């Protein structure tokens, strides 16, 4: 009669899976790329909810990060920047073999997934501790962190250069 | 044997379908912005996949750190791609690629 927490979690997961797929299909079929970019925000939000719903205790931290950085920065940057262009209408081309190739890619991808995950010993992930996360980031992943910081710095310079008039 | 969680199973299927949609979008468009958006769909699918597999394997720190770097680099990639698109648009006056 009453929904258990797991049932609720599964229902939310199914609803947002459908939202994610619908947003993705809208992106590839929309005739106006501005609306497609807005739809990417819905895709990002759905993915954030799906990730949090996989294991709320372990992954909600990343989910918030995904909403702030991906939806809040990347997609908004993309949508706002599109205003600079005239003629955002997409000329439709229909490649006859595109559905076949994408189906083949999906089958190959899923086969690799099934093969690689079949040998995994299933266990629940522990809740991450922010202090341990920070310590790991600094001790084990310091080089990627520096690369990321330099990348973001160049992005900022590039954004300033883009905003300048000729 | 421990049962595979329903959400992880569905996440693997959703990630696969998103990859298929992204590949379809990449092949079916000549508009550079739509090509960029299609690659973003594949990026989202891959991040969902990282967490789905990690939830099966019982990892919590590795996917977090990996995805934080991936999203940061995705932000950089979008801005660099956009700068290239603007240059292309200024030179050609169109967003269509040959």
Automatic annotation (TrEMBL), chain A:
Example GO molecular function: NADH dehydrogenase (ubiquinone) activity
Protein name: NADH:ubiquinone oxidoreductase subunit 6 (Chain J)
Keywords: Membrane, Transmembrane, Transmembrane helix, Ubiquinone
Span of the signal peptide: none
Entry-linked InterPro entries: NADH_UbQ/plastoQ_OxRdtase_su6, Nuo/plastoQ_OxRdtase_6_NuoJ
Domain of life: Archaea
Transmembrane segments: 12-28, 33-52, 64-85, 97-121, 141-163
TrEMBL record, chain B:
Alphabetic keyword roster: Membrane, Transmembrane, Transmembrane helix, Ubiquinone
Stated name of the protein: NADH:ubiquinone oxidoreductase subunit 11 or 4L (Chain K)
Protein source organism: Metallosphaera yellowstonensis MK1
Transmembrane portions of the chain: 6-27, 39-58, 64-89
Matches recorded under InterPro entries: NUOK/Mnh_C1-like (IPR039428)
Subcellular location: Membrane
Pfam family, one: Oxidored_q2
Membrane topology: Multi-pass membrane protein
Cellular compartments per GO CC: membrane
Signal peptide: none
Main location: membrane
Keyword Transmembrane helix: yes
């Amino acid at each position: 009669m009453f929904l258990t927490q797991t049932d609720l979690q599964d229902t939310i997961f199914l609803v947002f899976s459908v939202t994610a797929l619908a947003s993705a299909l809208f992106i590839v079929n929309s005739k106006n790329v501005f609306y497609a970019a807005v739809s990417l925000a819905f895709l990002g939000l759905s993915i954030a909810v799906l990730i949090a719903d996989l294991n709320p205790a372990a992954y909600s931290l990343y989910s918030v990060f995904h909403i702030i950085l991906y939806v809040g920065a990347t997609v908004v940057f993309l949508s706002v920047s599109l205003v600079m262009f005239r003629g955002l209408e997409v000329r439709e081309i229909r490649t006859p073999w595109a559905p076949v190739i994408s189906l083949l890619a999906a089958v190959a991808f899923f086969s690799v997934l099934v093969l690689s995950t079949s040998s995994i010993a299933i266990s629940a992930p522990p809740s991450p501790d922010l202090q341990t996360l920070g310590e790991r980031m600094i001790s084990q992943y310091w080089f990627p962190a520096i690369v990321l910081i330099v990348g973001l710095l160049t992005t900022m310079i590039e954004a300033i250069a883009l905003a300048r008039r000729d | 044997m421990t049962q595979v969680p329903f959400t992880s199973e569905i996440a693997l299927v959703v990630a696969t379908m998103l990859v298929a949609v992204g590949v379809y979008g990449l092949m079916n468009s000549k508009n550079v912005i739509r090509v960029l958006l299609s690659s973003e769909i594949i990026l989202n699918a891959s991040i969902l996949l990282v967490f789905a597999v990690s939830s099966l394997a019982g990892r919590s720190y590795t996917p977090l750190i990996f995805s934080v770097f991936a999203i940061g680099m995705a932000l950089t990639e979008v801005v660099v791609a956009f700068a290239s698109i603007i240059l292309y648009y200024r030179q050609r006056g169109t967003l269509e690629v040959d």
